[in-house]
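Closing statement on the adenosine-5'-triphosphate sub-project.
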Amino acid sequence: MTMLLENFIMSLQAIRANKMRSLLTMLGVIIGISSVITIVSIGDSMRNFMTDQYKDVGINRAMVYTRPLDGFYSDSDYFTVDDLDIVLEAMNGDLAYADLNGWSNGTIKRKSLDINVEMQEVAKHFESIANVKIIEGRMINDADINGRRPHIVLPEKTALEIFGTAKCTGKVIEMEVEGERRELTVVGVYRKEMSAASLMLLGNPTAYVPYSYIRNADNHMTFYLNVYFADDADKEAGYRRLTNVIARMKNRQPEEIRMHTVAEEMQQVDMVLGSLSLAVGAIAAISLLVGGIGIMNIMLVSVTERTREIGIRKALGAQPWDIKFQFLTESAIISAAGGIIGTTFGLATVLILGKVVDIAVVVNPGTVLLAVAFSAAVGIGFGFYPASKAANADPIEALRYE
Amino acid sequence: MSKAVIRLTDVSKTYDTGAIQVQALKHVDLVINEGEFVAIMGQSGSGKSTLMNILGCLDRPTSGKFYLGEDDVSVMDPKELATVRNKKIGFVFQSFNLIPRTTALKNVELPMIYARRPKTERRRQAEALLARVGLADRGDHLPNELSGGQKQRVAIARALVNQPQMLLADEPTGNLDTGSSLEIMELFTALNSEGVTVVVVTHEEEIAAYCGRVVRFKDGQLISDLLQEPVRPAAAAKGGDDR
Ligand SMILES: Nc1ncnc2c1ncn2[C@@H]1O[C@H](COP(=O)(O)OP(=O)(O)OP(=O)(O)O)[C@@H](O)[C@H]1O
Ligand SMILES: [Mg+2]
């Protein structure tokens, strides 16, 4: 115990005696550790951010389409409004929502600049899956759909753009949609908090309109079925059942039905990001190795410089282990100090970066712990050879050294 | 007859420098008993330092036997040798060999640190020994803030701190003026009268005069071994008090 303390004091003294050199040696470890922490944390934050985006889009969501036979689509390959009800019924509660994946663009003519309104054509039960916060009025409901009512729900930003206020329920918007003039009554306004990064990735929030009003026809057809599974549905079984239901409906084999699920896509993106940050992190870890070699180098210099001192200590009765321990302590202190400074530096970089691009920062305590432990191990590992060299020096040779 | 602390039988030391082999000690037989005060003399290159390094367990003989008390030093491993150097031997060098950038007090404490003695006891013992060598007020000084004589006295305090049976000094006064030299010898005489065996290498007859026995070497061989009546400190001219 006292030996530990004495060694610690002696090592600090030696490090202080060579401030500049010790600092430069530490620099290798500082750069290594801070880059590992920065890179791994950026990777983790990115993954977390992407997962959040997918959750926002709807983790239960899937797109279904039939693969064309011989490269051609036949009429039966398209989905119609009637198909929606058939599918929902056949899935028996496992499917919370289905629509024909329709989107329209409305243009509000203004003297100066026209206002563009992107609209998602929603179907029955949209209310139940819409993941937004209504701040005025209400969401599009089944009565709007069934009644083909000219109703619209606006995102707050668009409401402000058009009316200068979010309190605009009951007001009528005149716009041109695919060449036709439409008049839509605002029934609700919703708010969605989005960071700059998610805005960039997902685009502006869209308005919602009943597909039945916009399309105004029962014979409307699309390629894709856009579905949301129920929260409590068994996803794997659900995918299989939906494939079978659609295959039966379209008189096709289940293999000919294609499905993209958000969950699957999320997993893939997560995996790609995960291995990417691992790979870059590993490259950064190499700089730690270089830092370790720097420590070894400087410890070798230190041992040579202090050969005479080692000889004196041995003459006074220092055990080989005492000498080894003294130099190991020194290299461990250098690398651990480098590790701590590097960690602080890395964390600060990550936090500042997170503030700048406005995404939530994820710092894995395991990563930090691992990085610091690794740096201490580097110090001890690379300090071992120089320390052993000192410990095994012949006392009389060491005393004669000039 | 008193107990032998050092027993050398047929000890030789050959330095192999590749091209030439230097026989620094040739078949030396020497017994030093407990409580003796011995001067080793001889011209430069006669093997005095070589002998002292062997006695101090810093170096090993090429051939021959060396017993320290009852123990055969030639069979000891580096750990045991370290323990012997720490506990049984105090070594004083011509060039002081204090650890640089380390206070006098800390230098004196060092052998006790390696002996794993508790801190408070270390501090007390180190201060007592610094006082003993007349440097009670120099504990906080760094080696480069001390005069040669003061450095050597710190080194002596350090050599004595673990209460060794014997003190080996290789030209301890070689770098000192006469005043400081005589002070050191008075200190050795006092220690010897307390029972510590002292072996001193010197070139100067007035230093050797303090000793009860003078052993002379020439070309690695022991050529004479004489007992004499030592000068008592009171009889010696006192050097300037530099405290
Ligand atoms: N490490 C060494 N390698 C080779 N030869 C050595 C070594 N050390 C001493 N010698 C030789 O051994 C002989 C004895 O040297 P030693 O140092 O014991 O002499 P000394 O009596 O102490 O001399 P001095 O009075 O000058 O200190 C000398 O010839 C010297 O050159
Ligand atoms: Mg000599």
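The first helix of chain B runs from residue 48 to 55. With this model delivered, the sub-project is considered complete and its resources will be redirected to Aim 3.
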